[in-house]
Amino acid sequence: MRRNFIFHGFLGADNLSNCNEKKLIHNFSEPLDSVDSHRQAGNMMNMNSEEPPLQPDPSSSVSRQVVPRAAMTSPEHPWPVTMASWTFSQAISTWPSFWLEGQIQEINARRAGSTYITLADSQVSNTTLEVVAFGATSAQAAQFHQGDRVLIHGKPNLYQRFTKLSFLAQEIRRIGQGDLKQQIEELRKKLKGEGLFDADRKLALPEFPHHIGLICAPQARAEGDVKRNAMLRWPTIQITSEYVHVQGESCPPDVIAAVKKLDADPDIDVIIIARGGGAFADLVGFSDEGVVRAVSECSTPVVSAIGHEDDWTLLDLVADLRASTPTDAAKRVVPDVHEQLELIDQLRFTLQSDLQSLVTSQLQLMHGYLTNPHLTHPMSMLEPYSQQLERLSERLNASLHQYVDSETNAITRSQATLTALSPQKTLDRGYSIIRDEDGHVLSDASQLSSGQLLALLLRHGSATARVENVHD
Where is the OB-fold nucleic acid binding domain (predicted)? Predict the structure, then answer.
């Protein structure tokens, strides 16, 4: 008797609905007699091999002889996990190779020459599939980056040790730059052109914040990292958390509302937006234009702490400070109380040392004043100046007498010269001065006319005369 085993569970109903075959039907022979028989069959596989696992040949004796019938299992005769995993692998191994389209969400190259890609559905962001590439295909995958849209040719593969489904890549082709990544890049250029990322727009963080506004997911590790490290560094710090969705469609409006709410609170000194690491698609909410503009308009300093050090979003560019992780954000926003106490001790020591040096120097200066002979015997300091003053006084008196004598002689000489040139001397010698009626001095006969009245100035007195005759 043969029965059909209809296998659904390992794929899931949602994925089966997209398959050409709604059911994976495999024929199984009579049930094995015991669990040990199942285990014996499972042990025939090499479970210690590395990826990609070796698939049993359906034509081998193992496939022909060890083909359990699932419907005949029971609590007394269950399948061991190894047999279930092997059965799943056998079902998947019958699938042909096919082309797969998606967007690279994560890509990691390993030293062993393998590359692991998390491929996301271009239309449904929460549906992903792990793609594994080895050898030449792994080398080919090195040219691709997070956000790229690709076509991958390969076939499904089940790693039996962990019963983990993946897609074994045989060829990878680029469709073009990922739509999401391209949109973010275009938005970055636009916002940069508006000056939203300019350094002169950045706000300085307060040196000693008292109250932090934290935007994060509820019960997130990021919240614990920020609070724990902030409290360790500054136990009196206050933190107000605003819980938001940190991925998906609700992320941007939640973050915008939280930023505006905390910015309107006058008690908030700085805002931290924190989220743990994630795939590229998980972080796109923090590259939303509305989020970027809300942060750019914020009057409170904003710190971005999204993902890990290698994760970048547009929020990182517009924020006043970008921290590599939530822990780093707490350390960069909150001062370390132990460092501050140590700094206070250093300043106290420096102040005491400087004060001691100042007191010592002033005491030395005072001692110098007290031992200075000019201060202990002030007259001895004035004595040479007194002697010099006497000498200068004597020189001044001598110079003054000499100057007076010289000037007296000069005056006497000038007086004698002036007296000799005086008109009175001329009059004393018998001459007279003749003036006309207007008082003009006459010195030539041509200035006279008959009958003209003249005034005569003599040695003693004056007289009036009339001209009778004029002789040239």
Answer: 96-173
CA atoms within 13 A on the CB side of 248: 8
Q: Are residues 353 and 235 in the same domain?
A: no
Residues 171, 86 share a domain? no
Residue 471, domain member (yes or no) = no
Residue finishing a domain among 116, 144, 177: 177
Specify the CATH number for the domain of residue 160: 2.40.50.140
Contact (CB, 8 A) for 67 and 28: yes
Element (H, E) at 5: strand 3-7
Q: Is the dihedral of CA 284, 289, 291, 293 positive or negative?
A: positive
With respect to residue 169, please indicate whether it lies within any of the assigned structural domains.
yes
Rounded distance, CA 262 to CA 431, Å?
120
Q: Does 283 lie in the same domain as 234?
A: yes
Owning domain of residue 348:
339-371
Tally of CB atoms within 10 A around 159: 19
Between CA 303 and CA 295 the distance in angstroms is 10
CATH number, domain of 299, equals 3.40.50.261
Kindly list the strands in the beta sheet with 321-322, ordered across the sheet, starting from the edge strand earlier in the chain: 238-243, 211-216, 270-275, 302-306, 321-322
- Residues 314 and 222 occupy one common structural domain: yes
pLDDT per residue of the chain (472 residues) written in tens, 0 to 9: 333 333 333 333 333 333 333 333 333 333 333 334 444 434 433 333 334 433 444 444 444 434 446 788 889 989 899 988 988 888 898 999 999 999 888 999 988 889 999 999 877 767 899 999 999 899 888 888 888 889 999 999 998 889 999 999 999 988 855 567 788 899 999 999 999 999 999 999 999 999 999 999 999 999 999 999 999 999 999 999 999 999 888 999 999 999 999 999 999 999 999 998 877 778 889 999 999 999 999 999 999 999 877 778 999 999 999 999 999 999 999 999 999 999 999 999 999 999 999 999 999 998 888 888 777 777 777 788 888 998 999 999 999 999 999 999 999 999 888 887 778 777 877 888 889 888 888 888 888 888 889 898 888 888 899 988 888 7
Based on the fold, state whether residues 257 and 321 are members of the same structural domain: yes
CA distance 455 to 445: 15
- Tell me, yes or no, whether 413 lies in a domain: no
Q: Would you say 147 and 160 are in contact if contact means Cβ atoms under 8 Å apart?
A: no
Does the predicted model carry a pTM greater than 0.70? no
Amino acid at 301: P
Q: Total structural domains in the chain?
A: 5
Per-residue H/E/C for 167-228: EEEEEEEEEECCHHHHHHHHHHHHHHHCCCCCHHHCCCCCCCCCEEEEEECCCCHHHHHHHH
